[in-house]
């Protein structure tokens, strides 16, 4: 299992699609956005403090889904904003199911992130203050700092290759 995370517009979905599509074993690309978009009434933007309970429920649903796919023999690439504060449920599930868990943070610089966000279409998050706040949340990862990859000058293919190397190295493994 790989958690591919970082701030909005870091390239997570594009890279996760490449990783899953080019995998040599059966692999699922699980985007966390689908779980949030499934909330039709009572949705709270997940970056707001009032969303804490909602976010915990969504993370529990994601962890359960990952466990089901992994139990069925699939590798899983989780694509979404999964900060270190949401790792405990993933860690517990991975340990219980005896799964390896790699944590990779895509972290372009703020200017690159905001530039990419401006190019987004549809319902994708474009709010500068929210993106800046989420970027700052991934700026200091403490003990997980070595899990960050500076992707500011990399295209999607280069980032995908960097992630593959990171996961293959086992240096990004938590379990």
UniProtKB/TrEMBL annotation:
Family matches, as SUPFAM superfamilies: P-loop containing nucleoside triphosphate hydrolases (SSF52540)
Pfam families, alphabetically? AAA_33
Q: What InterPro entries does the record point to?
A: P-loop_NTPase
Protein name, per record:
AAA domain-containing protein
User: Which species does the entry assign this protein to?
Assistant: Mangrovihabitans endophyticus
Upper taxonomic classification of the species? Bacteria, Bacillati, Actinomycetota, Actinomycetes, Micromonosporales
